[in-house]
Write a structure and sequence with these properties.
The chain has eight helices and ten strands. By secondary structure, the chain is α+β, with helices and mostly antiparallel strands. The chain has a five-stranded antiparallel sheet with strand order 6-7-8-5-9. The protein has a three-stranded antiparallel sheet with strand order 1-2-3. Helix 4 packs antiparallel against helix 5. The longest helix has 23 residues.
Protein backbone atom coordinates (compact mmCIF):
# COMPACT_ATOMS: atom_id res chain seq x y z
CA UNK A 1 0.00 0.00 0.00
CA UNK A 2 2.95 2.34 0.60
CA UNK A 3 4.11 1.82 -2.98
CA UNK A 4 0.57 2.14 -4.37
CA UNK A 5 -0.05 5.36 -2.45
CA UNK A 6 3.24 6.81 -3.72
CA UNK A 7 2.39 5.88 -7.31
CA UNK A 8 -1.03 7.51 -7.08
CA UNK A 9 0.47 10.64 -5.55
CA UNK A 10 3.20 11.00 -8.17
CA UNK A 11 1.31 9.83 -11.27
CA UNK A 12 -2.22 10.85 -10.36
CA UNK A 13 -4.96 8.56 -9.12
CA UNK A 14 -6.45 8.20 -12.61
CA UNK A 15 -3.25 6.53 -13.85
CA UNK A 16 -3.84 3.44 -11.69
CA UNK A 17 -6.67 1.43 -13.23
CA UNK A 18 -7.93 -1.89 -11.89
CA UNK A 19 -9.88 -4.69 -13.54
CA UNK A 20 -7.93 -4.41 -16.81
CA UNK A 21 -6.88 -7.79 -18.24
CA UNK A 22 -4.22 -7.61 -20.95
CA UNK A 23 -5.55 -9.19 -24.15
CA UNK A 24 -2.49 -8.47 -26.31
CA UNK A 25 -0.47 -5.66 -27.81
CA UNK A 26 0.82 -4.25 -31.08
CA UNK A 27 4.04 -2.37 -31.73
CA UNK A 28 5.35 0.34 -34.01
CA UNK A 29 8.92 1.61 -34.31
CA UNK A 30 8.40 4.02 -31.41
CA UNK A 31 5.41 2.86 -29.35
CA UNK A 32 3.48 -0.07 -27.92
CA UNK A 33 -0.33 -0.19 -27.93
CA UNK A 34 -1.79 -2.48 -25.26
CA UNK A 35 -5.26 -3.99 -25.66
CA UNK A 36 -7.39 -4.66 -22.56
CA UNK A 37 -10.64 -6.36 -21.62
CA UNK A 38 -12.71 -5.98 -18.47
CA UNK A 39 -11.72 -8.82 -16.16
CA UNK A 40 -15.31 -9.40 -15.00
CA UNK A 41 -17.30 -9.02 -18.23
CA UNK A 42 -14.59 -9.79 -20.82
CA UNK A 43 -15.71 -6.75 -22.83
CA UNK A 44 -13.16 -4.57 -24.61
CA UNK A 45 -11.72 -1.54 -22.81
CA UNK A 46 -9.87 1.43 -24.34
CA UNK A 47 -6.33 0.74 -25.53
CA UNK A 48 -3.34 2.33 -23.84
CA UNK A 49 -0.25 3.51 -25.71
CA UNK A 50 3.24 4.16 -24.41
CA UNK A 51 6.94 3.91 -25.15
CA UNK A 52 7.34 0.56 -23.37
CA UNK A 53 5.20 -2.31 -22.09
CA UNK A 54 6.40 -3.72 -18.75
CA UNK A 55 4.83 -7.06 -17.87
CA UNK A 56 4.73 -6.88 -14.08
CA UNK A 57 1.60 -9.02 -13.97
CA UNK A 58 2.60 -11.84 -11.66
CA UNK A 59 3.18 -15.56 -11.82
CA UNK A 60 0.27 -16.01 -14.28
CA UNK A 61 1.56 -13.15 -16.44
CA UNK A 62 -0.39 -12.57 -19.65
CA UNK A 63 2.71 -10.93 -21.13
CA UNK A 64 4.92 -13.93 -20.33
CA UNK A 65 2.31 -16.36 -21.66
CA UNK A 66 2.21 -14.43 -24.94
CA UNK A 67 5.99 -14.49 -25.23
CA UNK A 68 6.25 -18.15 -24.12
CA UNK A 69 2.92 -19.77 -25.06
CA UNK A 70 4.17 -23.35 -24.55
CA UNK A 71 5.68 -22.89 -21.09
CA UNK A 72 2.85 -24.50 -19.15
CA UNK A 73 1.76 -24.01 -15.52
CA UNK A 74 4.04 -23.12 -12.58
CA UNK A 75 6.13 -25.88 -11.04
CA UNK A 76 5.08 -27.21 -7.61
CA UNK A 77 7.76 -28.44 -5.20
CA UNK A 78 5.42 -30.44 -2.93
CA UNK A 79 5.03 -27.81 -0.20
CA UNK A 80 1.87 -25.97 0.81
CA UNK A 81 1.84 -22.82 2.92
CA UNK A 82 -1.05 -21.72 5.10
CA UNK A 83 -0.93 -18.03 6.02
CA UNK A 84 -2.87 -15.94 8.49
CA UNK A 85 -2.70 -13.10 11.01
CA UNK A 86 -3.64 -13.38 14.69
CA UNK A 87 -3.89 -11.04 17.65
CA UNK A 88 -1.82 -12.19 20.60
CA UNK A 89 0.80 -11.36 23.16
CA UNK A 90 4.28 -10.29 22.03
CA UNK A 91 6.94 -13.01 22.05
CA UNK A 92 10.66 -12.87 22.76
CA UNK A 93 11.78 -9.24 22.16
CA UNK A 94 8.38 -8.18 20.85
CA UNK A 95 10.06 -7.48 17.50
CA UNK A 96 11.44 -10.95 16.80
CA UNK A 97 10.90 -13.08 13.72
CA UNK A 98 11.04 -16.80 14.40
CA UNK A 99 11.44 -19.81 12.11
CA UNK A 100 10.96 -23.25 13.61
CA UNK A 101 11.16 -26.67 11.99
CA UNK A 102 12.86 -28.00 8.89
CA UNK A 103 12.35 -28.59 5.17
CA UNK A 104 9.26 -30.80 5.57
CA UNK A 105 7.44 -28.91 8.33
CA UNK A 106 8.01 -25.32 9.32
CA UNK A 107 6.42 -22.42 11.19
CA UNK A 108 7.30 -18.76 10.69
CA UNK A 109 5.93 -15.87 12.75
CA UNK A 110 6.67 -12.19 13.22
CA UNK A 111 4.81 -9.11 14.49
CA UNK A 112 3.44 -6.62 11.96
CA UNK A 113 1.69 -4.13 14.29
CA UNK A 114 1.22 -3.48 17.96
CA UNK A 115 -1.20 -1.80 20.35
CA UNK A 116 -0.98 -1.21 24.08
CA UNK A 117 -2.80 -4.51 24.67
CA UNK A 118 -1.54 -6.97 22.09
CA UNK A 119 0.35 -7.62 18.85
CA UNK A 120 -0.80 -8.61 15.40
CA UNK A 121 1.25 -11.63 14.35
CA UNK A 122 1.76 -12.68 10.77
CA UNK A 123 2.33 -16.45 10.53
CA UNK A 124 3.03 -19.13 7.95
CA UNK A 125 2.63 -22.87 8.54
CA UNK A 126 4.26 -25.10 5.94
CA UNK A 127 4.11 -28.80 5.15
CA UNK A 128 5.83 -30.70 2.34
CA UNK A 129 3.93 -33.57 0.76
CA UNK A 130 4.69 -36.41 -1.62
CA UNK A 131 4.87 -35.39 -5.31
CA UNK A 132 1.64 -37.29 -6.04
CA UNK A 133 -0.35 -35.34 -3.42
CA UNK A 134 -3.46 -33.67 -4.83
CA UNK A 135 -3.13 -29.89 -4.92
CA UNK A 136 -5.00 -26.97 -6.42
CA UNK A 137 -3.81 -24.15 -8.65
CA UNK A 138 -2.34 -21.28 -6.66
CA UNK A 139 -4.78 -18.51 -5.82
CA UNK A 140 -4.36 -15.44 -3.62
CA UNK A 141 -7.85 -15.91 -2.17
CA UNK A 142 -8.26 -19.63 -1.46
CA UNK A 143 -9.36 -20.21 2.12
CA UNK A 144 -7.43 -22.89 4.00
CA UNK A 145 -8.74 -25.57 6.35
CA UNK A 146 -7.13 -25.87 9.79
CA UNK A 147 -7.73 -29.62 9.74
CA UNK A 148 -5.22 -29.93 6.87
CA UNK A 149 -2.28 -28.78 8.98
CA UNK A 150 -3.10 -27.86 12.59
CA UNK A 151 -2.89 -31.46 13.93
CA UNK A 152 0.74 -31.66 12.79
CA UNK A 153 1.55 -28.57 14.89
CA UNK A 154 -0.48 -29.60 17.96
CA UNK A 155 2.55 -30.10 20.23
CA UNK A 156 4.53 -27.08 19.01
CA UNK A 157 4.25 -25.24 22.32
CA UNK A 158 7.33 -23.36 23.51
CA UNK A 159 7.66 -21.42 26.73
CA UNK A 160 7.69 -18.21 24.65
CA UNK A 161 5.17 -19.08 21.91
CA UNK A 162 2.13 -21.37 21.69
CA UNK A 163 1.98 -22.18 17.97
CA UNK A 164 -1.46 -23.93 17.98
CA UNK A 165 -2.95 -21.02 19.91
CA UNK A 166 -1.56 -18.50 17.42
CA UNK A 167 -3.02 -20.46 14.49
CA UNK A 168 -6.42 -20.89 16.14
CA UNK A 169 -6.62 -17.17 16.97
CA UNK A 170 -6.73 -16.21 13.28
CA UNK A 171 -10.05 -15.12 11.80
CA UNK A 172 -9.10 -16.89 8.58
CA UNK A 173 -6.19 -18.55 6.86
CA UNK A 174 -5.31 -18.93 3.20
CA UNK A 175 -3.64 -21.77 1.31
CA UNK A 176 -0.77 -21.35 -1.13
CA UNK A 177 1.11 -24.15 -2.88
CA UNK A 178 4.79 -23.28 -3.18
CA UNK A 179 5.45 -22.84 -6.90
CA UNK A 180 7.96 -21.22 -9.20
CA UNK A 181 9.03 -21.32 -12.86
CA UNK A 182 12.31 -22.15 -14.57
CA UNK A 183 14.57 -19.16 -15.30
CA UNK A 184 14.18 -17.77 -18.81
CA UNK A 185 16.89 -17.14 -21.39
CA UNK A 186 15.31 -13.84 -22.37
CA UNK A 187 12.92 -11.26 -20.91
CA UNK A 188 13.03 -8.39 -23.40
CA UNK A 189 11.59 -8.32 -26.92
CA UNK A 190 11.89 -4.95 -28.60
CA UNK A 191 9.78 -2.57 -26.45
CA UNK A 192 8.36 -5.27 -24.16
CA UNK A 193 9.95 -6.81 -21.05
CA UNK A 194 9.07 -8.66 -17.85
CA UNK A 195 9.49 -7.63 -14.21
CA UNK A 196 8.95 -9.19 -10.77
CA UNK A 197 7.05 -12.48 -10.54
CA UNK A 198 6.27 -12.31 -14.25
CA UNK A 199 10.01 -12.51 -14.94
CA UNK A 200 11.31 -14.71 -12.12
CA UNK A 201 8.66 -16.32 -9.89
CA UNK A 202 10.47 -18.00 -7.01
CA UNK A 203 9.72 -19.84 -3.80
CA UNK A 204 8.95 -17.39 -0.94
CA UNK A 205 12.25 -18.02 0.82
CA UNK A 206 14.35 -15.17 2.16
CA UNK A 207 11.49 -12.68 1.58
CA UNK A 208 12.57 -12.42 -2.03
CA UNK A 209 9.33 -12.27 -3.98
CA UNK A 210 8.52 -8.60 -3.46
CA UNK A 211 12.12 -7.61 -2.72
CA UNK A 212 13.44 -8.74 -6.09
CA UNK A 213 10.60 -6.94 -7.88
CA UNK A 214 11.63 -3.72 -6.14
CA UNK A 215 15.25 -4.26 -7.15
CA UNK A 216 14.08 -4.87 -10.73
CA UNK A 217 12.23 -1.55 -10.71
CA UNK A 218 15.28 0.26 -9.37
CA UNK A 219 17.54 -1.03 -12.16
CA UNK A 220 14.90 -0.49 -14.86
CA UNK A 221 14.41 3.10 -13.70
CA UNK A 222 18.15 3.72 -13.80
CA UNK A 223 18.50 2.34 -17.30
CA UNK A 224 15.53 4.32 -18.65
CA UNK A 225 17.09 7.47 -17.23
CA UNK A 226 20.36 6.61 -18.96
CA UNK A 227 19.09 5.44 -22.33
CA UNK A 228 15.56 6.79 -22.48
CA UNK A 229 12.41 4.68 -22.77
CA UNK A 230 13.93 2.45 -25.40
CA UNK A 231 14.73 -1.19 -26.26
CA UNK A 232 18.33 -0.43 -25.28
CA UNK A 233 17.22 0.40 -21.73
CA UNK A 234 15.28 -2.86 -21.49
CA UNK A 235 18.26 -4.91 -22.66
CA UNK A 236 20.59 -3.20 -20.15
CA UNK A 237 18.07 -3.84 -17.37
CA UNK A 238 17.74 -7.50 -18.35
CA UNK A 239 21.49 -7.98 -18.66
CA UNK A 240 21.91 -7.05 -14.99
CA UNK A 241 18.79 -8.53 -13.45
CA UNK A 242 18.06 -11.76 -15.32
CA UNK A 243 21.24 -13.67 -14.31
CA UNK A 244 20.98 -12.39 -10.73
CA UNK A 245 17.37 -13.47 -10.24
CA UNK A 246 17.96 -16.81 -11.98
CA UNK A 247 20.54 -17.64 -9.30
CA UNK A 248 18.02 -16.88 -6.57
CA UNK A 249 15.33 -19.07 -8.15
CA UNK A 250 17.77 -22.00 -8.13
CA UNK A 251 19.12 -21.18 -4.64
CA UNK A 252 15.57 -21.12 -3.24
CA UNK A 253 14.91 -24.56 -4.75
CA UNK A 254 17.81 -25.73 -2.58
CA UNK A 255 16.06 -24.14 0.46
CA UNK A 256 18.12 -20.93 0.45
CA UNK A 257 19.32 -19.75 3.87
CA UNK A 258 16.79 -22.07 5.53
CA UNK A 259 19.03 -25.00 4.64
CA UNK A 260 20.65 -24.59 8.07
CA UNK A 261 17.37 -25.71 9.64
CA UNK A 262 17.44 -28.91 7.60
CA UNK A 263 21.08 -29.51 8.60
CA UNK A 264 20.11 -29.31 12.26
CA UNK A 265 17.21 -31.72 11.67
CA UNK A 266 19.53 -34.20 9.99
CA UNK A 267 22.28 -33.94 12.60
CA UNK A 268 20.09 -33.84 15.71
CA UNK A 269 16.67 -35.36 14.92
CA UNK A 270 16.09 -36.05 18.62
CA UNK A 271 16.78 -32.48 19.71
CA UNK A 272 19.76 -30.74 21.27
CA UNK A 273 20.78 -28.70 24.30
CA UNK A 274 23.22 -26.33 22.59
CA UNK A 275 22.94 -25.31 18.96
CA UNK A 276 26.72 -24.84 18.92
CA UNK A 277 27.08 -28.60 19.33
CA UNK A 278 25.10 -29.16 16.11
CA UNK A 279 25.89 -26.22 13.85
CA UNK A 280 29.10 -24.19 13.96
CA UNK A 281 28.98 -20.38 13.95
CA UNK A 282 31.01 -20.48 10.75
CA UNK A 283 28.37 -22.63 9.02
CA UNK A 284 25.56 -20.40 10.23
CA UNK A 285 27.24 -17.11 9.28
CA UNK A 286 28.54 -18.51 6.01
CA UNK A 287 25.08 -19.62 4.91
CA UNK A 288 23.57 -16.23 5.75
CA UNK A 289 26.35 -14.22 4.10
CA UNK A 290 26.38 -16.38 0.98
CA UNK A 291 22.66 -15.98 0.46
CA UNK A 292 22.80 -12.23 1.03
CA UNK A 293 25.38 -12.01 -1.76
CA UNK A 294 23.21 -14.05 -4.14
CA UNK A 295 20.05 -12.09 -3.28
CA UNK A 296 21.71 -8.68 -3.45
CA UNK A 297 21.04 -7.98 0.23
CA UNK A 298 24.66 -7.56 1.27
CA UNK A 299 24.77 -4.27 3.19
CA UNK A 300 28.10 -3.00 1.88
CA UNK A 301 27.22 -3.85 -1.73
CA UNK A 302 23.83 -2.13 -1.43
CA UNK A 303 25.34 1.02 0.07
CA UNK A 304 28.01 1.13 -2.62
CA UNK A 305 25.38 1.37 -5.36
CA UNK A 306 24.45 4.90 -4.43
CA UNK A 307 21.31 6.73 -5.56
CA UNK A 308 19.63 6.45 -8.97
CA UNK A 309 20.76 9.37 -11.12
Amino acid sequence: MILLDAARERLGASKVMTGHHLAGWSESDSHVRAHFVDRRTNTALPDAEGDLLIGADGIHSAVRKTLYPNEGPPIWNGAILWRGTSRGQPFLTGRSMIMAGHEFQKFVAYPISRTADDTEINWIAERKFRPDHTWQREDWNRAGNLSDFLPQFADWRFDWLDVPAVIQAADACFEYPMVDRDPLDRWSFSRVTLLGDAAHPMYPIGSNGASQGILDARVLTREIRRAGASPAALLAYETERRPATGKIVLANRANGPEQVMQLVEQRAPGGFARIEDVLTPTELQGTADGYKQIAGFDRDALNARGPIV
